[in-house]
Amino acid sequence: MTRSALRIAQLAPVIVPTPPEHAGGTERVVSDLTEALIAAGHEVTLIAPSDSRTSARLLSGYPSLVALQREHGAVAPGVPAMLEAVQLDLLREHLHEFDIVHCHGEFAHAALLGGSAVPSLTTVHWRLDELDRQLFFRWFDRLQVAAISGAQAACLPGGNLAGIVHHGIPADHYRPGPGGGPLVFLGRMTDQKRPDRAIRIARAAGAELRLAGGIDVGNPTFFARAVEPFLCDAVAHVGEVDDRAKQDLLGHASALLFPIDWPEPFGLVMIEAMACGTPVIAWRKGSVPEVVEHGITGFIVDSEDEAVDAVRRLPELDRGQIRAVFEARFTADRMARDYEALYRRLIGRAR
Amino acid sequence: MTRSALRIAQLAPVIVPTPPEHAGGTERVVSDLTEALIAAGHEVTLIAPSDSRTSARLLSGYPSLVALQREHGAVAPGVPAMLEAVQLDLLREHLHEFDIVHCHGEFAHAALLGGSAVPSLTTVHWRLDELDRQLFFRWFDRLQVAAISGAQAACLPGGNLAGIVHHGIPADHYRPGPGGGPLVFLGRMTDQKRPDRAIRIARAAGAELRLAGGIDVGNPTFFARAVEPFLCDAVAHVGEVDDRAKQDLLGHASALLFPIDWPEPFGLVMIEAMACGTPVIAWRKGSVPEVVEHGITGFIVDSEDEAVDAVRRLPELDRGQIRAVFEARFTADRMARDYEALYRRLIGRAR
């Protein structure tokens, strides 16, 4: 097989632009993958909201949901599904132009691509163990999927699994920081991410804590109930942060607390911390044992007591080594190489 | 063109089976249309949840959302979109078997059918004036749509409008009833349907009222706020009703109150009342002036005062004539003939 340039379509979500302004892990990955594939010499077409920014050819119908909400206020509940249909129509119209189609969402694209000769790869940026995805893969039993962790792959029928590709971020997106500052929690304020555990751990360890992240629209009472009453000078909520604030926060953090309580499919913030040289104290759930190397890039724990203990052991870790592990395992270039290998395998099979 | 049998696909929604057990106007229409087309000699394939009942060939992937909820309890929010993708996959797989595809929903089917040589017709069973449908039709500007009323058609770009087909129900589904009993309100307990207006009208007219219909999940406080405090012996809420209870309720009603406060695209319950010989007192909104003939099958009003006046004028109306108008204008056979004419026009154009 030649190492020729591939003509690749990336189908992005419709909720926020690619890349996102604030939260939006999927859109961040789609953007970073797109740029890395272009840097590797491929012809990439990004199908995404019109408020996206990309070096790829951009095919758009309408702005993202958040842009429409900014313009119109509250919008009808059918808007996201309508936006997805428009992007699928663009994909259908241009399908013959691509060697491979990489879809970052569910579900209707599987019906559209089912009869097509053009091979496709789907990345699901969410847990796979719930009824929607379980029934989806039982029906679309030949849809080729790249799992984003071995933990996620374990929930996928064997016939669907094309491979496992860990996420990556551009090597220069975050710089190593000095550390030594407060502990940091970074994520939505939900009972999946458990900022309440982070607060208890910081208090028990006698450490300061900065909580960054938005209040979950699907679970608005959690913040008022489990976080807000425990805020003080030492434990502060700083809200949603942009990339610059994230660099500052993670770069100065003595550690990232990742006390999750759900089957995390990947957990992008763990590698963002590592890119800053910052160790990760994370619960043994989902992807964590694949991402964190215990005693090197952080500590994997099973309880709040163990987490407090891990805070005390942080001086054992070398921030330079953490950054080196990040560069070896979690850059966007590595992610792009892994996906390219998968693309070529699927294209070869389709011939 | 010959009057040969057509091979027709009907694509139903995924939320409840076709026909529905209780609420579900769309599924009711899809079922009645399917049966009437089969009675007219056509080959109909119904793509619908597996708990549907039909004389057509049934293509199903999974049970309806409500059946899955009955089995699993609360399900992941992606289930409806997943079920729609499965039905679209069935449509794609069997597309070559049909002369015409009739879709009763949005939005992804438009992307799937965009490149197809098989003509399609879409019926939208909802208002068309909101952002989701407005942007949908701006993009899919050649998708052929049957409006369910002239009022609904007014919100549709000219290029999309294939025709207007009022709903119908089987002539024998409801029988003429004696009337003379309480006024009836039948619909969801929402500020679109305005049961609160019905209560004030009945009180002012000194008439009894029966309110039938479920509490809207999207607006759960409305019932507690605007309906419940005003219930008494004379004004009773009887909850959701099945077809038999509806026959009893409408057949004995002296009139149906339809005091809507939204652009009703059709309003099936108006013709259900007429099938029972029961007059309709309805607000001048949406489809109402097309469905109700003022002074014959009911009264069209603009205020609560006018509605109270209309209650007093009910003895002027002839229940036998109301049933006769129903039989002439609003049976499923008439609806099926109208759709058949549209199908043949679209098939002719596609050749």
TrEMBL record, chains A, B:
InterPro entries linked: Glyco_trans_1 (IPR001296), Glyco_trans_4-like_N (IPR028098)
Gene3D superfamilies on file: Glycogen Phosphorylase B
Ranges of residues in domain Glycosyltransferase subfamily 4-like N-terminal: 24-172
All residue ranges annotated as the Glycosyl transferase family domain in the record: 183-314
Alphabetical list of PANTHER family matching this protein: BLL5217 PROTEIN (PTHR12526:SF595), GLYCOSYLTRANSFERASE (PTHR12526)
Protein name: Glycosyltransferase family 4 protein
